[in-house]
Each structure stands twice: as C-alpha cells, then as structure tokens.
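Lab meeting, item 3. Inverse folding demo.
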C-alpha cells in the first residue's frame, strides 16, 4: 500500500494543493504540523491530525512538530464568533510544556524535530515584519475569509487587529520553516485550511517557489454531532487530569456501531486486515462490542500507555459487571474506582433512595423511588425493585449501584 492509498483508505484525505497525491509516494519530504497552546492539553481532535502525521512518518517523510508559543499569545480567530480571551505568557509557557510532553508520548521513539514559533518571532521587528510579510499579503485575500466577513458584517462582534493579523503570523511560520528547515508541506485539520493556504501563497509571492498543504477532515463526535475541540463543550482531553484514562477508554467503548470502523482507521495504526477482522467479530457479537474494545484499548495505549490502559479496562469491566467488584483486592485499583464514580458510606439496611441521592444518581428521594419503581436501578448488575439494601447486596463490604446503563451513572456503596 502506498501513502496515497493508506491516507485514502483511512479517510484522512480532505483538501490539498497537490494535483496528484501520488507525488507523496516519491522522494521523502520534510513537512510540519503545529498546535497552539491555547489550553494545557490537546484533545482527540488534535489526535486525529497526529495520527495523520504518524501515517506520513511511516512512509519516510520527516516531521517538524511546531508548538505555537507566538500564535498562542494571539489565538486563532477562525471559527470563533467573538474575540478570544487573552492568555497570559506564564500560562502559555505552562501550556507549551504540557503539549510538548504529549508530543513526546504520542511520537515517542520516532524521529522528529520540535520547534517553537516564539523563537523566531520574539526578536522580529514590527517594521521588518510589515515589509517582509505584510507587503506580500493582499487585503482582499484576508477580508474574504469567512470568519472575517461574519465578524465585520451586520450583527457581528467585530475583530481586533491582533486576531485579524493571526493569519500573517501562521503564514510566516511556513515561510520561515520553508527557508530554514526545508519544509515544503504543511499538514493540518480542515479548519486550518485557510491559514495554511496563506503560507503557500506567501512562499510563492516571496520566493517564487512551490509549497503545499494537505488537510484531514474534521472528526465529528458521533454522539454530540459537533467537531472534537477545546471550545465546543465536548472536549475529550489527552491530559489524564482533565479526562482520566478510564473516562478516555470509555468514550471509545461508547461510540456507535456505525462509526467504529471509520474511527479504527483514523485513530489506530492497525492494518486493514486487523480492522476487517474486528468488524466481522462485531457483526457476529454486537453485544460484546469487540470493535469498540479494540478501538478503546488501541487509542488509550497510544495516549496513556499500557499500564493505564489495563487499569481502564479493569475498571470498565467492573462497571459493566464482567469483573466482580468483590474480587478486587488492590487498594490502588479501588482508589481509582472511587475517583471515577461517587463512593458513599452506607449501612446494610440503608434506604436505596437515600443511597441514590447520596451518590448523586438522583436529585431527590421521590425521584429515586420512582427510578426504582421503573426498573432503572441495579445493584451489582441486577435490577432491584425494593426499598432497602440487604446484607446479601454487599461483597467484601462493597456494592455497585447504577442508574440505567451508562458507566458514568454508577456509584460505589461501601459499609
């Protein structure tokens, strides 16, 4: 399989300036991909682009990974209906360090070069920038951007000169890397197409030479229908302190059957045969969700490592009743369970409604009693329709209570 064939098969091809993607099958090139440190973690939206980068790397292309220390101080306005809040330099520095660590985790053991655009912007003088960059960027091109038109149009919130100029900064990144690192390609998500094209145009106008852009489609959350991102309210973070490895694992377990094959192609490095085999198993036994389990284990291992993945699998098995909670002796594992779901102290004869309210699974006792009556409450995986807990519900002093079927709607009752 060639790079063009694999990118196409994995569903990673969106827009590109290449007239023929077979050009990517020729001699190795140097390309770059960048992330702004607008938060202290990347999301699974960024991870999709990172997996595309890894695909390019498998075919011998050399990556330059950029951290946007300069662009992060401004903030990309594209797709935003109003001005971003400024982030302090101190916070940007912390965010940069966190994202660099995530780069190292995802691309660990592979050859890449890391750069920070703050390094070439910090000493760049304003007049030099206007002459060397601004002179070569037509205003018509900038004003035609969709987000500029919407922000400046009737009812728009307006746009500052700083955010308006963001595209110039990113365009200069491409020019700088083209001239100093031999970078001839920028890879990006679909939402960065306009900024990336500005770099291609600047290189052409300034040097008379050709550079290219390759973008991957935006990945849509199969549950919410929104893109995966930091500000869409549905972010799944790569930082374990923001989205725990267990929550991360369970996100992938919960993807719908009709989405799992495409997500396996995008978010894993599994071969075509391995993915086909998992989908066949899925068709034969949908209840066990073998494809989702393979997806969850593969992606969690890339982001959090093998040990965290095993813990996430064990906790998930506990929450779905495949592993008996009473058999868990590891205090570290129990401590992790308590972080994932509410843990409350009860007596053997406590009212179930009271336990539901204490664990946050019901807003009031009357609501809790109705849930029990409706058959929506289970203890250790068995539905209950009674008022009080019983001694037999507890094994080694622990009982798992759940509302409905979702992992997150569980609680740990302890004597």
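The presenter then showed the designed sequence:
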């Amino acid at each position: 399989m060639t790079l063009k064939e694999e990118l196409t098969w994995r569903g990673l091809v969106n827009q590109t300036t290449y007239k023929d993607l077979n050009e990517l099958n020729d001699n190795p090139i140097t390309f770059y991909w960048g992330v702004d440190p607008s938060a202290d973690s990347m999301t699974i939206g960024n991870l999709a682009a990172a997996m595309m980068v890894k695909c390019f790397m498998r075919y011998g292309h050399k990556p330059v990974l950029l951290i946007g220390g300069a662009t992060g101080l401004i903030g990309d306005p594209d797709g935003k209906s109003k001005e971003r809040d400024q982030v302090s330099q101190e916070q940007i520095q912390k965010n940069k360090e966190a994202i660099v660590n995530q780069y190292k985790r995802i691309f660990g053991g592979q050859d890449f070069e890391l750069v920070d655009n703050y390094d070439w912007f910090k000493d760049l003088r304003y007049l030099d920038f206007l002459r060397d960059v601004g002179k070569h960027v037509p205003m018509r091109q900038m004003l035609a951007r969709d987000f500029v038109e919407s922000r400046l149009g009737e009812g728009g919130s307006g746009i500052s000169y700083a955010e308006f100029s963001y595209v110039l900064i990113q365009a200069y990144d491409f020019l700088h890397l083209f001239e100093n690192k031999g970078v001839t390609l920028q890879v990006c998500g679909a939402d960065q197409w306009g900024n990336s094209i500005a770099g291609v145009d600047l290189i052409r106008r300034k040097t008379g030479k050709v550079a290219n852009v390759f973008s991957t489609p935006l990945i849509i959350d199969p549950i919410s229908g929104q893109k995966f991102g930091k500000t869409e309210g549905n972010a799944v973070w790569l930082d374990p302190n923001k989205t725990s490895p267990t929550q991360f694992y369970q996100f992938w377990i919960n993807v719908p059957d009709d989405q799992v094959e495409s997500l396996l192609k995008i978010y894993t490095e599994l071969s075509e045969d391995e993915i086909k085999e998992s989908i066949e198993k899925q068709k034969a036994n949908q209840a066990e969700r073998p494809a989702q389990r393979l997806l969850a284990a593969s992606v969690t291992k890339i982001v959090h490592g093998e040990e965290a993945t095993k813990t996430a699998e064990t906790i998930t098995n506990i929450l779905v009743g495949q592993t008996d909670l009473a058999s868990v002796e590891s205090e570290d594992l129990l401590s992790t369970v308590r972080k994932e779901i509410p843990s409350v102290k009860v007596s053997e004869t406590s009212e179930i409604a009271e336990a539901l309210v204490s664990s946050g699974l019901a807003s009031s006792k009357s609501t809790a009693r109705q849930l029990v009556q409706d058959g929506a409450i289970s203890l250790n995986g068995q539905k209950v329709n009674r008022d009080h807990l019983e001694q037999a519900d507890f094994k080694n002093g622990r009982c798992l209570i759940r509302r409905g079927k979702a992992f997150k709607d569980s609680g740990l009752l302890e004597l």
